[in-house]
Design a protein that fits this description.
The structure holds 2 protein chains of 2 kinds.
Chain A lengths: L3 E5 L3 E7 L2 E3 L2 E4 L5 E5 L2 E7 L1 H22 L5 H16 L7 E9 L3 E7 L5 E3 L2 E4 L1 H13 L6 H18 L6 E8 L2 E9 L4
Antiparallel strand pairs in A: 1-2, 1-10, 2-11, 3-4, 5-6, 6-7, 7-8, 8-9, 11-12
Helix pairs in contact in A: 3-4
Chain B lengths: L16 E2 L29 E6 L2 E7 L2 E3 L2 E4 L5 E5 L2 E8 H22 L5 H12 L8 E8 L2 E8 L4 E4 L1 E4 L3 H11 L6 H18 L6 E8 L2 E9 L1 H30 L4 H4 L3
Antiparallel strand pairs in B: 1-7, 2-3, 2-11, 3-12, 4-5, 6-7, 7-8, 8-9, 9-10, 12-13
Helix pairs in contact in B: 3-4
Classes of the chains: A alpha+beta, B alpha+beta.
Chain lengths: 199, 276
C-alpha cells in the first residue's frame, strides 16, 4: 500500500515516496513525509508497520547524529546503511522485531552516489534502482527497461513519472501525490511534489 | 480462620469495551511477530473527532459505551480534559482509555511541576506514543486536541505507534461516516457556530449509521483561553426534527413547482399569479 522508489544516476540519487498515512481503510493524512534526514547528504525512506517505522527511523537518525557529535565528521552512506542493517538484524531475533522496509540514499565525496535497498529481514543490497511496496511489482520492469547508468536528472525524473503513471493506471489503490527529493554533492534538494491524479 | 473466596472470572467474556472490529484490508501482509495473543476480539465502538479552524479546536464524541451487543452505558464521557488547554478523546477498551487518560494527566502534571512550563502538544503526543509502545497490541487510539499559544493543534496517537498531526482527525467505528461530513463542510475560516454545527452533524450522522455509536453528543471548544464545554445534547430527537424539516422543504418545493406550472398555463392573465 505504501510505495518507495529510488533511482541512482552518475552523480545524484533521486528518491520518491507516497504521501498517504492510512489506518485500515481510511486515509488519515494526505501529506505525510516518509523520508528521514540522517545527515546533510543521506536520506532514509522508511515504510512498514505503523509505529515501527517512526521509532526505528528516528533511532537510526539520532544515532547517526550522535556519531557526528562524538567524532566530528559524518558517517558515509555505506557506513550508515551497514549500521542500520546491523541494528535491524539485532532486533530481528529479539522479542520486539521491527517490521520495516527501507531505502537509504546518499552521496559520498569519495564514492559518489549510493542507493541501498533493505528489507524487514535486514537483507542489504546496493542497487542502481529499487522500489518497495506493492507498487514495486508494477514498476520494477519499467525501471529495468529504461534505466541507464548515465541518466541525466531530467531523464531520471521522466523515468520516475513513467513509473508513477503506471501505478496510477494499474494499482488498485489511489496514491494521489508523492514527495520527490534529489541528493547530489550539494546536499538534499526538494523537488516539486508529483501529483498523479486519477484520470 | 476465615476463608476468603475469590471469584475467578475465567469465563467472563462480556468485557466492557468501546472498540469495534475495524475492517482490515491487507492485514495479512504484516505478519504479527509479537508473541502476545488477544484473549478475544475487542472492538472500537465509538465516534470521536477533532478538528482545528481559525478560532481554536473542536473536539466532539458520542457517549455510548457498548459491549458486543449490549449498551453498557448510554452516558459515558469519552472526552477528558488533561489540563486547561489540552483535551483527549479516546477510543478502545473502556478500561484502557481511563487508565491512559489518568497516566497522561499525571505525567503532564509532573512535567509541569519539574520544568515549570507546560509540555507542548508535540511533546505530549510523543510522550503518550512512547508510553503506549510496550502495549502495542492493546489497540487504543487517542486524539489529542490542543489550543494554546502556538495555535490550535490536533494530533492522533495510536497504540501501534502511528502519530499524526493534521487538521481533521476522527477515530472509531463511526469515523468513516464522520469523515464524510467533515471533509465536505470544513473550512479554515469557519465561525465558532459553524464549526460546532459541523461537529454536531458529523457525530449525528455517524450515530445514525453506526450501531456502536449513539445516545448523546459531547462537544468541547478549545481556544487560547482554555476549553469550554457545550451542554450534552441528546440526539434522539434530532432524527425526527430533521425528517420534519425535510418534509416541510419538500412541501414548499411542491408548492413552488405548482405555482410555476400555474404561471405557465395561465398565460396573459396577470391576476391568476397572485392567488394561492
Amino acid at each position: 500500500m505504501e510505495y518507495l522508489i529510488g533511482i541512482q544516476g552518475p552523480d545524484f540519487v533521486l528518491v520518491a515516496a507516497d504521501n498517504v498515512a492510512a489506518s485500515s481503510i481510511i486515509q488519515m493524512k494526505h501529506d505525510y513525509d516518509k523520508m528521514f534526514k540522517l545527515s546533510e547528504k543521506i536520506l532514509l525512506l522508511c515504510v512498514g508497520e505503523a509505529g515501527d517505522t517512526v521509532q526505528f527511523a528516528e533511532y537510526i537518525q539520532k544515532n547517526v547524529q550522535l556519531y557526528k557529535m562524538r567524532n566530528g565528521y559524518e558517517l558515509s552512506p555505506a557506513a550508515a546503511a551497514n549500521f542500520t542493517r546491523k541494528n535491524l538484524a539485532d532486533y530481528l531475533r529479539s522479542r520486539t522485531p521491527y517490521h520495516v522496509n527501507l531505502l537509504l540514499a546518499g552521496y559520498d565525496e569519495a564514492d559518489g552516489p549510493g542507493l541501498y535497498y533493505m528489507d524487514y529481514l535486514s537483507a542489504l543490497a546496493k542497487a542502481p534502482f529499487a522500489a518497495h511496496g506493492y507498487g514495486a511489482f508494477l514498476t520494477l520492469s519499467i525501471l529495468d527497461r529504461y534505466y541507464r547508468p548515465d541518466l541525466t536528472r531530467e531523464e531520471a525524473v521522466d523515468l520516475l513519472k513513467k513509473c508513477l503513471e503506471e501505478l496510477n493506471k494499474r494499482f488498485i489503490l489511489n496514491l494521489p501525490s508523492f514527495t520527490v527529493r534529489l541528493i547530489d554533492k550539494d546536499g538534499i534538494h526538494d523537488m516539486e511534489k508529483l501529483p498523479v491524479g486519477p484520470k | 480462620k476465615t476463608c476468603i473466596y475469590t471469584h475467578k472470572q475465567k469465563h467472563f467474556t462480556h468485557f466492557c469495551s468501546r472498540k469495534n472490529r475495524v475492517p482490515t484490508l491487507f492485514s495479512s501482509t504484516f505478519s504479527s511477530l509479537s508473541p502476545h495473543q488477544q484473549p478475544f476480539q475487542l472492538s472500537h465502538g465509538t465516534t470521536t473527532l477533532g478538528f482545528i479552524f481559525q478560532d481554536g479546536v473542536i473536539a466532539a464524541a458520542d457517549t455510548r459505551a457498548s459491549c458486543k451487543g449490549l449498551i453498557c452505558c448510554p452516558t459515558s464521557q469519552k472526552i477528558m480534559p488533561i489540563h486547561s488547554h489540552l483535551v483527549v478523546n479516546t477510543s478502545g477498551s473502556g478500561a484502557d482509555c481511563m487508565l491512559w487518560e489518568r497516566i497522561l494527566t499525571r505525567e503532564m502534571r509532573l512535567y509541569q511541576l519539574r520544568h515549570r512550563k507546560r509540555l507542548s502538544i508535540n511533546g505530549a503526543a510523543k510522550l503518550l506514543s512512547m508510553m503506549l509502545h510496550p502495549f502495542k497490541d492493546q489497540n487504543t487510539k487517542n486524539v489529542l486536541s490542543f489550543g494554546g499559544r502556538s495555535g490550535p493543534r490536533v494530533c492522533y496517537v495510536c497504540s501501534d505507534g502511528l502519530q499524526l498531526k493534521g487538521e481533521i482527525i476522527s477515530v472509531g467505528s463511526g469515523s468513516p461516516y464522520a469523515y464524510a461530513v467533515l471533509d465536505d463542510g470544513w473550512r479554515w475560516g469557519m465561525t465558532v457556530d459553524e464549526a460546532v454545527a459541523l461537529a454536531r452533524e458529523a457525530v449525528f450522522r455517524a450515530t445514525h449509521w453506526d450501531a456502536y455509536s449513539g445516545n448523546n453528543v459531547d462537544l468541547f471548544h478549545i481556544t487560547a483561553h482554555g476549553w469550554r464545554r457545550r451542554d450534552r445534547e441528546d440526539l434522539k430527537e434530532e432524527y425526527y426534527r430533521e425528517r420534519e424539516r425535510k418534509r416541510k422543504k419538500i412541501k414548499e418545493r411542491e408548492k413552488e413547482r405548482q405555482k410555476r406550472e400555474g404561471d405557465e398555463l395561465g398565460e396573459g392573465d396577470i391576476y391568476s399569479v397572485h392567488c394561492g
